Every structure is written in structure tokens, then in C-alpha cells.
DNA sequence: AGAGTTTTTGACTGATCCATCAACAACGGA
DNA sequence: TCCGTTGTTGATGGATCAGTCAAAAACTCT
């Protein structure tokens, strides 16, 4: 009933996500977005409304992809090993291109400037926290993980170190020392 | 032998630091800097050369103030308590205004865009790491802190969690749960 | 008082920012 | 085939960006 779109909206959001991830929200210009998505100005605004609107979509996509990745690791491995792999893969990816984590980047960039977007990013963090809590409770049921503290507290602790590692990855700390820290965290989790 | 300056260069750098801290590097306009320092365009450029130059000065100042703050805690308290207070005060400040830590903010904002500035910020982090290593070695000598791991590794671990907490503080996690995590980290450090 | 030096002042530059718009194009349904 | 709808295209808008400049001003030294 109308002219069909030339571009793939999904691919465009994906490209936008990558760009925001690399350059940050403020650091990404609409020109950058046009170049990366291959769209023209009018089309982009017609489809997504504004730079901010596109960023929201990108954040949602990031959260969804994160959830998918977290589930991919689940498999049938023991919980502690799941946590270990989660952190190792996250750290590796953050260190590889020095881009860190989009959610963490967004929170640090926008918390005191755009609380609404920051809250959106925060949901990515709480999602990870939930995954961790679940894994920890699993591991505790199996006697693999220490039970002297609430699972939520342990999860916060692990997540804290994890986010700190992402920052260190961006700061250029070498992969090996990041991995050592991960192993130390895992060791401290053991019952 | 020349016209005297009307403004206090130190106060100007201080004001600039606060502004960058709140709004980030890209997010701070020269107009913002003029408003906060009370200077006029030409004066600011005459004195500091560029926005980037002023930012470098602000980062140096941040590092110096950080060092001063870290030393202020030293006192004669036991090492573990020093670490505890260091983290608590850092977390409190980060949570109070949701600005986090200027060094962490800078690393996450600029690592993939301006490596030179990111490296400057990184030095703030390694300074803190050095302080931690020292405190841990002290505590170990007194039998207060566990000795089953290299002090540097423990320091990285503590620093990681600390930076993660700063992110969580920006994300709006409540003070109490941040404090609980600090206590958990301290407990895990004990011999 | 005059020369020399640095700062202040505010207007100005060109680039880039995000966003809008009208004209045109491509489709489905009547 | 013609109409309603939606997408594309590229020019254009005003705002803001970081940074420059020439002229006037405030000081010291001679």
C-alpha cells in the first residue's frame, strides 16, 4: 500500500549500535550514522525520528543480544564455570577493540546528563545481575558456591569486579592480568 | 612588567575539572567552560591554549587531589581499615552527585577516540593501584590480610570491584547496597 | 611620561551540529 | 489508470561548535 523501504531497518539499528558503542552517544554525529547505515538524512529521520530515538533502539538491541549471548553459555556446564566463561568472554571482547561495554559506557557518559537514557542502560546491568543471581543460586544448591552470603550480594560483588575489569580493559590493561583477576574472583566464589 | 591577570588560574582549572567531571569531555562546550570559570573567550584561550589543553590540566589536578585524599586517610589506622575507608569515601562521593570518577569516566569516554588523553586518565588508576598494593603489603606483614595471592593481583581485584562500584553508583544503585559490597570485599581480603 | 609586554574584550570565522522540508518516486488498491 | 500512502532525495535551516584576531587596557621599567 506504499513505497517499500530500500534499507534493512534491523541492519541499520545494528550498525548504529556499533557506532554508538565505538564513539559514544555525544561523540557520534548524525553524519557518522548516515555513513555507517548507508542511509540518507531524510530516510533516517523518517524511520527513526531522531538521533536519540535511534540510540534507544540500539540500546534495546544491545540488551537483547546480551541476553542471547548469556543464554548461549548456559548449556549444561556447572554454574561456576558458566560465570567464569561469562566474565572471560566479556573481558576478551572488551579488551579486543577497547570499546568496553555499551551499557557501562552509556551509564558513565549520560548518568548526570540524560537520566532517562542512563536508566535504559541500567536495565542491561540489572539483567546481567539477574543471570548471575540465578547461576549463584544454582551453584549453591549443588554445593559448589559459598553460602555464607546472600546470593544477591555475591552477584553484586562479581558484577562490580566484572564492570571494573571492563573499565580496565578499556584502559588498556593486558589480557593476561584481566584473566588472572577473573580466576581470582571465581576462586573466591567457590564454597 | 605586564598587565596582571584578573582571574585565578588555579580556580579556573578547578572549575573546569568540575565541569568536565559532570558533563564529560565531549559534552562540555567551551561556552560551558567560560560560564563556569567566569572567563572570557580570548582570555581562556590565551591562558590555556585549547579545550584539550585545559582538560589535561584538569586531569592532572584530579590526580593530585586524589593523591592528597588518599594520603589523608593513611593516618595510623590498620591497612585493611584504610582500604575500607578509601572505598567507602570514593563510593559515597560517586553516589552523591552521580558523577562517578573523572578518571574512569574519561577512560570509558575517550579510550577508542583519544588514546593520549585516555592514557593520562589511566595514570590516575595506576596511582590508586599503587596505593592499594602498598596497603595490602602492609596488612600482610601484620598478618591482617591473606597471603595466598600476589599483592598486585589482590589490588587489581579490589580496584576492579571499586571501579565497578563507581559505575553502579552512577547507575543509581542505592548507597546501602554499595556499602554492603564494600564490606564483602574487605571481608574477602582478611587473612 | 613613554616604551614594552601581557591580558582583556567581544566580535568574528568557518565548520559542524541535529533536524526539517518540499519535491519526487514506488508501491497497493479501487 | 489514477489515488492514497509511504519512502527517498538532497537542499536548506538555525544553532552551536572550537578557535582566532585586532584593538584597547593595565601593568613595570626606564
TrEMBL record, chains A, B:
Residues 6-66 form the HTH tetR-type domain. InterPro entries: Homeodomain-like_sf, HTH_TetR, Tet_transcr_reg_TetR-rel_C_sf, TetR_C. Signal peptide: none annotated. Keywords: DNA-binding, Transcription, Transcription regulation. Coiled coil: none annotated. Gene3D superfamilies: Homeodomain-like, Tetracycline Repressor, domain 2. The keyword Transcription applies. Residues 29-48 bind DNA. PROSITE patterns: HTH_TETR_2. This is TetR/AcrR family transcriptional regulator.
